[in-house]
Amino acid sequence: MYRRLLVPVDGSAPSDEALARALEIAGASGGQVLLVHALDSLVPGPHHAAGGALRRVRFEEGERVLQRALAIADDSEISARTRLLDQPRRRLGEIVAEVAQSWPADLIVVGSHGRHGVARALLGSGAEQVLRLAPVPVLVVRSAAAAMAA
């Protein structure tokens, strides 16, 4: 039974669907959830003129995403904590795998936009990165909107 669930969140519909699934699993097992948000590594660093201001905006946005997800978990009466991750020049999959190992998680629950073809090649797939690098089982929750479009 999965009792320690790691959920990367970004505020998108697929992320919300993954969170809902993780909360169901945690509720059934008496488990807990760690909500993580990785800051966008493409934002210029502090050495750029606007880097400091952009980084502050990204931190604030990341905190809003985490607080929203935490409120959803609280409404479900599931024990949840948050962690904002700022590791520039590292891929989401690497960051999530490291946190999953150090926390330690039993299961990672991640949402997927269901992109394929050119969109996936151009935008990458955070869910695929997590799948390839995760040290624990991964549940990929495909967005209902993406599933209907397929």
Task: Write a structural description.
The chain has 150 residues and is of the alpha/beta class. It has one domain: HUPs (Rossmann fold, 3-Layer(aba) Sandwich), CATH 3.40.50. The protein is built from 6 helices and 5 strands, in the order βαβαβαβααβα. It has helices at residues 13-29, 51-75, 92-102, 117-123, 126-133, 144-149, and strands at 4-8, 32-38, 79-85, 107-112, 138-142. A 5-stranded parallel sheet has the order 3-2-1-4-5, sandwiched between helices. Strand 2, helix 2 and strand 3 (79-85) form a beta-alpha-beta unit. It is globular.
Explain the layout of strands and helices.
Blueprint: E1 4-8, H1 13-29, E2 32-38, H2 51-75, E3 79-85, H3 92-102, E4 107-112, H4 117-123, H5 126-133, E5 138-142, H6 144-149
Parallel strand pairs: 1-2, 1-4, 2-3, 4-5
Relevant terms:
150 residues; 5-stranded parallel β-sheet; single chain; alpha/beta; Rossmann fold; 20% strand
Side by side, the strands of the main sheet go 3-2-1-4-5
The CATH C-level name is Alpha Beta
CATH superfamily: HUPs
| Unreliable residue runs | 116-124
What does the overall shape look like?
globular
Element order, helices and strands? EHEHEHEHHEH
What's the architecture, going by CATH? Answer: 3-Layer(aba) Sandwich
Separation, N- and C-terminal Cα atoms? 32 Å
- What Rg is obtained from the alpha carbons, in whole angstroms? 15 Å
Number of DSSP helical runs? 6
As a percent range, the share of helical residues equals 40-55%
CATH topology: Rossmann fold
Count of individual domains: 1
**How confident overall, as mean pLDDT?**
85
